[in-house]
UniProtKB/TrEMBL annotation:
InterPro entries: Carb_Metab_HTH_regulators, DeoR-like_C, DeoR_HTH, NagB/RpiA_transferase-like, Tscrpt_reg_HTH_DeoR_CS, WH-like_DNA-bd_sf, WH_DNA-bd_sf. PROSITE patterns: HTH_DEOR_1, HTH_DEOR_2. The lineage of its organism: Bacteria, Pseudomonadati, Pseudomonadota, Alphaproteobacteria, Hyphomicrobiales. The keyword Glycoprotein does not apply. Pfam families: DeoRC, HTH_DeoR. This is DeoR/GlpR family transcriptional regulator of sugar metabolism.
Length: 254
């Protein structure tokens, strides 16, 4: 098996199991542990995995979010349920902002149901899917392309956003703790903040499994959002804290 094929197989195993064991991989592919170490080093350098003692994981950490290629294959039902609820906040004729991320990509495609719309996004998956669709005025934000996030980021992206205004912005996050939303990448944080500042209304999208977790950077206070949509009810303590803070939490499964 070629190295590229073996590494893709490792990615497939991580999507299914979320973590892999170095010894098991060496046995599975009939190669040395050193070869597997090099494979995991390559995948970590590409931002696909996070190496841990004895193996690797795709679970988010304080400074790690898995590659878009991993995330787009995870939790599809949760993404669909959140996107459907988010779609209820959109009316034809609106100008809508959608940020990076696999969750946002699902919503981006659903927005076709609400055309005509003006759609502003830095999400390359949405740009590719909607670029030839009638009834969509697509404003694709430029910037430096990030393969890890499949999005355009940086100063060019932020400057473009400062010159635009939307009726609503949909922002996704990999971590919420207390009344704060977090992200592990500073370029992504700046782009999301610019979208928040450039929209009349904002909606945060977060998987309930990410509530109760932090990341390296504080992205925003939850009070900055008009609504927060999650797929299922979070843990009781987290839900109670959000209720005490008078946060408008929408449970998509209700």
């Amino acid at each position: 098996m070629k190295r590229e094929e073996r590494q893709q197989s490792i990615i497939n195993l991580l999507v299914e199991h979320k973590s892999v064991d170095l010894d098991d991989l060496a046995d599975r592919f009939a190669v040395s542990k050193m070869t597997i170490h090099r494979d995991l080093d390559d995948l970590e350098q590409a931002g696909v995995v996070r190496k841990i003692r004895g193996g690797a994981t795709i679970d988010a950490g304080m400074q790690f979010e898995s590659d878009f290629r991993i995330r787009e294959r995870q939790g599809n039902e949760a993404k669909l349920s959140m996107a459907r609820r988010a779609l209820e906040l959109v009316e034809p004729g609106m100008t809508v902002m959608v940020n990076d991320g696999s969750m946002a990509a699902v919503l981006g495609e659903m927005l076709l149901q609400k055309r005509p719309l003006t759609l502003i996004t830095n999400n390359a998956a949405i740009i590719e899917r909607l670029k030839n669709e009638s009834g969509i005025t697509l404003i694709a934000l430029g910037g430096i392309y990030s393969p890890k996030f499949n999005a355009f980021l940086g100063v060019v992206t932020e400057e473009a956003l400062f010159r635009l205004r939307a009726d609503i912005a949909f922002i996704s996050t990999p971590a919420v703790s207390g009344t704060l939303a977090y992200h592990m990448d500073d370029n992504v944080v700046r782009a999301k903040r610019a979208m928040i500042a450039s929209a009349s209304k904002t909606c945060l999208l977060v998987n309930h499994q990410r509530i109760g977790h932090t990341a390296l950077h504080v992205m925003a206070d939850l009070s900055a959002f008009d609504a927060i949509i999650t797929d299922s009810t979070p843990e009781p303590a987290a839900a109670a804290q959000l209720e005490r803070a008078d946060i408008n939490l929408i449970i998509a499964s209700d």
